[in-house]
Structures are given as C-alpha cells and as structure tokens.
Specification:
Elements: E1 8-11, H1 19-48, E2 82-88, E3 100-102, E4 105-109, E5 113-118, E6 124-129, E7 145-147, E8 150-154, E9 159-164, E10 170-175, E11 190-192, E12 195-199, E13 210-215, E14 221-226, E15 247-248, E16 256-258, E17 263-267, E18 271-272, E19 289-294, E20 300-305, E21 321-324, E22 330-335, E23 340-345, E24 351-356, E25 372-374, E26 388-390, E27 395-402, E28 405-407, E29 432-433, E30 438-445, E31 451-457, E32 466-467, E33 472-476, E34 481-486, E35 492-497, E36 506-511, E37 514-521, E38 536-541
Antiparallel strand pairs: 1-31, 2-38, 3-4, 4-5, 5-6, 7-8, 8-9, 9-10, 11-12, 12-13, 13-14, 15-18, 16-17, 17-19, 19-20, 21-22, 22-23, 23-24, 25-28, 26-27, 27-30, 28-29, 30-31, 32-33, 33-34, 34-35, 36-37, 37-38
C-alpha cells in the first residue's frame, strides 16, 4: 500500500493482536523492560564513575554500531534538551559528515575544509583549507579518522593526508587515487595498528574501487585491494572483451574492523555502467557486496554479494556493523540501497534474516529505452548511514529512503566511457525521480529479524540513527527536525525544528560530567532535490548541566 503524507509509528503485530496475545505481549514486554532496566542501570553506574566518553570514530567505534553507553540524557528528560551552541559553517554544501570528538575537540569535514571546534562551546579552534588540484565529481567529505594526536582524511582530488589534531598543520600528504580516472575520496578513514584504511569512490564516473592501507606515520602505501579484480576467478565474472570497460566497486562512507580477528569489513558500491547490465554480463564481483580483508595484509578473507549484475545502482554504500547478539552469536548487519537489511554470521557465510525496510517494486523488470520505473530508486533504500545496534534492547535500527526512479537506457553502441564523466548507461543520467518521496526507520530484533516497530514519514531519512543506553534513538530528517525516539517502541519523545535539512551524523559524548549531543545539519543536495542554507553543527545538553 502506498504511504501517505503523514508520520506514524506502529507495532508490527498491533493490527492482529487478540486479547490472549495482548496478555502474552504484556509479559514479554515486562521481562524485556526489566532486562533493559538492569542493563541500563549497569551501564549508568559505569558512566557515573567517569567524566569523559568521546566519539572517537565515524560510527562511534571499530564495530560501527553507533551505540552510546551514556545515560544522563534519557527517555525521562530528553524532552527538556536545549541547544547550547551552534557552529555555523560558512559553506552551502551537501553536509553529511559524522562528527568525531576527541580531547574535547569536535572534527567535521566538507569538500574543501577540515574544521576543529570546541565540543562544549562550538567555538572554532582551527580550520584547514585544502587546495584541491583536480577534484573531479567529488562533492563532499564524510569525516576524519583519529589516532595518536593526528586526524586523517581523504580529498576529492585523490589526496590522503594527516594533520596535527591540535593545530591542523599538515604532517604528510600523498596521492592515493586518480581523479582523471573517475576516482575520488568521500569516505571517512579507519585507523588501526598504525595503518590508515581508505577506499575511493567513483563507481558512477568510470572509476574502479581500490581499498588501501597507508602508514599512519609516513603516508606510505602498505597494500591495495581492487574491488573490481583484473585477475583470478573473480575477474571471470566480468566481460573479457577488450572494448568493454570495467568500472565500479567504489566505497563511499566508512568501514568496520574486528581488532581481535584483525579483519576489515568494507561495503562495496555498484558496477559501471550503472544501469546497462547487458554491457557487463556476469555477477560483477565484488560490487554490491560486503568484503572481509586481512587488515594487516589486504588479503581477501570472505565476501557476500547482495545484488548480482546490479542494474539499479543498488550499492552497499553504508558500512556494515559488527555485534554479538543477545543469543551470543557474533554477527554482521548490513543494509543496502536495494531496500533490505541483512543479518549474517561474522564470516558472512550464513544468512540469518533478510528484512525489507522500504517499498520494493518492479525490481526484476528489465530496463528499456522507453522508460522503466522501480523502487527503491537509485538513491535507495539505505544510503550512506546504515544500521545501528542497541545491546540492551538487542535491536537493530535502519534508516531508509522510499523514493522511486525512472530510467531510460542508451543503446549499448552509444555508450561512452570518458572518466570522470558519468558512466551510467542511461539517457537521463541518474534517472528521473518521483514527485512524492517518503522515509522510514525500522527497528528489528537482532536475533530473529522480527520487525518490532516502524516509523514512517513523508521525507527521506538520511541521517545517522544513534541508540543510547538511556533508551533513546537519536536522528534527524530532511525537513530539518532533530528527533529523539523511545528506542523500545518508536514513540517520538522530542521533535525540534532546526531550520535546515539534516543528513549528517548525530553523536553523543560526555565531557567533565556533562553529556552532549551534536547534530550535523544543513545539507544542500541538488541530486536529491534537497535545498539548504549553510551547514552547521548544533550542540545540546540538559538545562541544568550546560552551565557547569
């Protein structure tokens, strides 16, 4: 059934519950509530013994689950939150960065700049302007990695650099990608054991994805993995004709890492040309996949391809996440632009569940020159911010875009490969998009895949979804609302109009005994038909805490 222009949260079972099932549900909810209360109390006791808890990586940590163990702001008091500071970024841009908070400093990035601001007051500490030599089609930067007093990032002109975290001075600057070949950086790096991990974007512009490790001290490249292989069995999943160009496999957001196993988990983007599948017959490995790499050597250790021979631009754009479920299973969760959430074993071999999180229509219909409409459209599904996980609730949360696209194919003989020009295979480039669009947040039991609740709205949900031990789920929408939900049932506890679309990260941290929430907002994105003024970072705390 087609959504209507409204917002609602509903239980997945409510429509068919009988009185006996209501009784059973009451017992279950009571037990779950007790379990959550005990878990929250334990976490809260731990938090009360520390005054600092920072947000040191994109997605919060190596597991990328975005879970905050802080409880000072919770379901009982979140409605009294107030904005205590706002850093106004003097740029109108597609602001999608996830703030990183280390040492009381908050770091965010745009296409041209890296900003360091006081995480309490929002005052600028330094800004580094990056003189892009040849930025190509890149339009943004999603964040920094941090380690040992340095912040690291990639740039749209293919450079990778390390900066002094206190001053912004550049320590090293190396070339890691070739913008003339359609390659550029938008992802936030992950840093571990003295290595900086980063892959390039460019799937839609004729580029090929390469995931690389750089020495954190010197910038020297240590290894590289090609997501579109030129040799081996995987290369046989692509056409071998010399007149057909291979493209795709970019990475756009960030990565998860298992420090115990020494394994890097990376999402992999779509094949190119995006929509003309006949041009590139075969499965097109390793596009539209999650891959596992040995973090020390770059050797492939496993993969799961979610869409074979993709022809809808259905990337795995968002980072997968790593968690241990309530049942004690080590798992991976991933959500793609194809509209599904997947629950997998840690080695990606066992699929526990596959849950739709948005409308999926006309997915198997062939694309034609006349026009073909499909859902999700090329924007997703789940795009650059993916699933998150709450251990106390054993629940996954997934944002989604519900927006259809219509594609008209070019004749194969008319296809041109001229990086960094778009290499899509469509007359109408990235498609025509429906006038109406919607968004969803879906809460899913992490062991069973059962949908627990769903929030529906009449605007795409692009921002991160961040669960906390205080029982909250924090996010924002593209109408400019900062939202706080009761994570257990989806009830909206706070809805605050921030004035500009929100498509970036929402993070929580504690400094000197005060819990803060920072929201990255002001996202101007013409391809997604989203208008905005200049970007900003808003900082919130409780009214009786911010004046400490």
């Amino acid at each position: 059934m087609r959504p209507v222009n409204m917002e609602c949260t509903y239980s997945a079972d409510a429509r068919k519950a009988s009185m006996s099932r209501v009784r059973d549900c009451f017992i279950i909810v009571t037990l779950v509530g007790l379990t959550f209360g005990l878990a929250t109390k334990a976490v809260g006791q731990a938090d009360s013994q520390r005054s600092h808890a920072e947000w040191q990586q994109y997605n919060g940590g190596y597991d990328a689950t975005r879970f905050s163990s802080l409880t000072q702001i919770n379901t009982n008091n979140v409605s009294s939150l107030r904005e205590v500071a706002r850093f106004k970024i003097p740029e109108t841009t597609s602001f999608q960065a996830d703030p990183v908070v280390v040492g009381g400093t908050l770091y965010v990035t745009t296409l041209h700049n890296t900003y360091a601001i006081d995480a309490r007051t929002g005052q600028q500490r330094w800004v580094r302007l990056h003189d892009l030599k040849n930025p190509g089609p890149g339009r943004l930067g999603r964040g920094v990695g941090y380690a040992d007093g340095r912040v690291f990032r990639g740039l749209a002109d293919g450079h990778v650099l390390a900066m002094n975290a206190s001053t912004g001075d550049v320590i090293w600057d190396v070339v890691g990608a070739d913008p003339k070949a359609g390659e550029f950086y938008t992802a936030a790096p992950v840093v571990w054991e003295g290595r900086v991990y980063l892959g390039n974007a460019g799937s839609d512009y004729g580029g090929i994805g390469h995931i690389k490790a750089f020495d954190a001290k010197t910038g020297k490249q240590l290894w590289s993995f090609d997501t579109v292989p030129s040799a081996g069995e995987a290369a046989k999943t692509w056409p071998s004709e010399p007149n057909k160009f291979k493209a795709g496999g970019g990475t756009y957001t960030s990565y998860a890492l298992d420090p115990e196993a020494g394994l890097l988990y990376s999402p992999v983007g779509n094949p190119g040309p995006d929509f003309l599948r006949e041009y590139r017959s075969g499965d097109n490995l390793y596009t539209c996949s999650v891959i596992i790499l040995d973090a020390r050597t770059g050797e492939l250790k496993g993969y799961r391809q979610f869409v074979k021979n993709d022809f809808h631009d259905w990337d795995m754009a968002a980072s997968p996440i790593l968690f241990t479920s309530r049942a004690g299973r080590k798992m991976v969760a991933a959500a793609g632009k194809n509209g599904y959430l997947y629950g997998l074993s840690r080695d990606l071999q066992e699929l526990s569940f596959q849950v739709p999180v948005t409308r999926i229509e006309n997915a198997d219909a062939p694309l034609t020159a006349e026009a073909t409409h499909f859902l999700p459209g090329m924007h997703g599904g789940t795009n650059f911010y993916g699933p998150s996980y709450s251990p106390p609730l054993n629940t996954l949360f997934v944002p989604a875009i519900d927006w259809g696209s219509t594609i008209k194919l070019v004749p194969p003989e008319a296809l041109k490969h001229h990086p960094p020009q778009p290499f899509t295979g469509a007359v109408n480039a990235f498609g025509d998009h429906d006038a109406e669009r919607f968004g969803h947040i879906t809460a899913v039991d992490a062991d069973s895949g059962h949908v627990l609740w769903k929030y529906d709205t009449d605007t795409p949900m692009l921002a991160s979804v961040t669960p906390t031990a205080g029982g909250l789920l924090l996010t924002g929408d593209t109408k400019g609302n900062f939202l706080a939900f009761d994570a257990s049932n989806g009830n909206v506890l706070l809805k605050m109009d921030m004035g500009e679309p929100i498509g970036g990260g929402v993070v929580s941290y504690m400094l000197d005994g005060v819990q803060y929430i920072a929201v990255a907002g002001g996202m101007a994105n013409p391809p997604m038909h989203i208008d905005s003024g200049p970007a900003w970072v808003a900082i919130f705390s409780l009214p009786d805490r911010s004046n400490r």
